[in-house]
Structures are given as structure tokens and as C-alpha cells.
Design brief:
Blueprint: E1 3-12, E2 15-25, E3 30-35, H1 41-49, E4 56-61, E5 64-65, H2 71-77, E6 79-82, H3 94-105, H4 114-120, H5 122-126, H6 137-149, E7 155-159, H7 167-184, E8 187-191, H8 195-201, E9 204-209, E10 212-217, H9 219-224
Parallel strand pairs: 3-8, 3-9, 6-7, 7-8
Antiparallel strand pairs: 1-2, 1-4, 4-5, 9-10
Helix pairs in contact: 6-7
């Protein structure tokens, strides 16, 4: 297993948001991580990434417990978070965004370098000198995904990547996520309100409700179950 959560609990202040969250993902597996707003999905991602300290439980990445590692150390291991709201530097140009993150994350012999980002997202090369904040929503999201994969990512944590995107752009972006993960054995956790699109590329579905997992199974099993009342 690449990523394993066991009995994870976390929250903010006096409030515990998630409790007893447990699942494991193999390399190359895409998880659709679903549930209503406030169900605990983003809190789970933040805890895996090290932005929140767990109150209980374990996070194991490639056989190593990582609860005491900081965010930079987790990035070095191959964990990457694409946060809700895109996570770009809006006042820098597209090229400057890529250069800054590449200097931090990309290493010699890494899986994805600057040229790979431009190859995967040709529109970014066309907009190299454009201020990132003036890109369209879809182009900003492509840039954010490009930044997330620079270097040697092994697990992408994608928090609501389709927000504000037209349906055709959502399908294209999700297909790119699928293709990158499958061609490079990269794991992905996809937190998404666009349930239908997320389930098209997912190998597995987990549904959260009130901070706990209430469904864990295959997409077809999710479709056949009465899971819609959790949204």
C-alpha cells in the first residue's frame, strides 16, 4: 500500500471534525472522496498533508509513519496537495509560477519537469508570459495541477478541482488526472462535489458523513446503493 490511514481523528479548536477514518490506497489508484459540505473531506486531506495535526490515529506513507513530519518533508516524499481555490501565485506569470515551484520541488531525474508540464498543458506554454491571475478558470486549474505534479509526486490530494469550471473543462481536466495517474502509477484522492464526473475516473469511492466513512466500495456499488441521501 502507498497511503494508509488508521483511526484518524482531527479537528479545529475544541471541535473534532473527523474520527476513526481508516482506508488504504495502492499505487495508481484513484479515490473519489465524496460527501456533503462539512463532512470532513478537506479536513482529512489537510491532516494527511500535515496542515493539521491528528488527534488520534496513524498516517503511513510508503511504509513510513509521517504524523510527525512537516509539510515540506511530506512534499519531499511525494505527497502533493492541490487546495480548493487553485493554489497558484496570481501576480506572477505562468512561467514564473512554474519556475518557482520547479526550483523547490523538481529534482534531477524527477518524474515531471518544466517541459513535461508544458507538454501536458500546451495552453500554458502559449500563455507563458500571462499573469496567472488573469487566466481563465480552466487555465488556472491546469496551471495548479501542473504545479502539483512538478518533481516526483506519488500521491495527489485534489480538493474540489472542478469549482467554477464549465462542464467540458471538468471532463478534460479529470481525464488528464486519470491519464497522468495511470501512466505513472500515481495515486490520487479526489474531493469533489461533481459526483458523476469524479466517479467516471475513480477506481474506488469513499463517502463521508459527519466526519466518518459511511461507504467504501467500487463506483458501480456506489451507483447501485442509495448513497445520494448523504449529499
Amino acid at each position: 500500500m502507498l497511503l494508509q490511514l488508521s483511526g484518524l481523528a482531527a479537528g479545529y479548536g475544541a471541535k473534532t471534525v473527523i474520527s476513526d477514518v481508516s482506508f488504504a490506497l495502492e499505487p495508481g489508484q484513484i479515490l473519489a472522496f465524496l460527501g456533503h459540505n462539512g463532512a470532513g473531506k478537506t479536513t482529512t486531506l489537510k491532516t494527511v498533508m500535515g496542515l493539521l495535526a491528528p488527534r488520534a490515529g496513524e498516517v503511513v506513507f510508503d511504509g513510513q509513519r509521517i504524523e510527525r513530519l512537516n509539510v515540506s518533508q511530506r512534499v519531499a516524499l511525494g505527497l502533493r496537495l492541490l487546495p480548493e481555490g487553485r493554489g497558484i501565485f496570481p501576480d506572477l506569470s505562468v512561467a514564473e509560477n512554474i519556475d518557482v515551484v520547479a526550483a523547490r520541488n523538481a529534482t534531477a531525474g524527477g518524474m515531471f519537469g518544466i517541459a513535461d508540464v508544458y507538454r501536458l498543458f500546451p495552453v500554458l506554454e502559449e500563455r507563458r508570459s500571462t499573469r496567472a491571475g488573469s487566466l481563465s478558470g480552466g487555465q488556472q486549474q491546469m496551471l495548479a495541477l501542473g504545479l502539483a505534479i512538478l518533481g516526483s509526486p506519488r500521491c495527489l490530494l485534489l480538493d474540489e478541482p472542478s469549482i467554477g469550471l464549465a462542464p467540458n473543462l471538468v471532463e478534460r481536466l479529470f481525464q488528464q488526472v486519470h491519464d497522468v495517474c495511470k501512466s505513472h502509477a500515481m495515486t490520487a484522492i479526489l474531493v469533489e462535489q461533481n459526483v458523476a464526473s469524479a466517479m467516471k475516473i475513480a477506481d474506488r469511492v469513499i463517502i463521508m458523513n459527519n466526519g466518518q466513512i459511511v461507504f467504501d466500495g467500487l463506483p458501480q456499488e456506489a451507483r447501485e446503493s442509495n448513497f445520494w441521501h448523504y449529499f
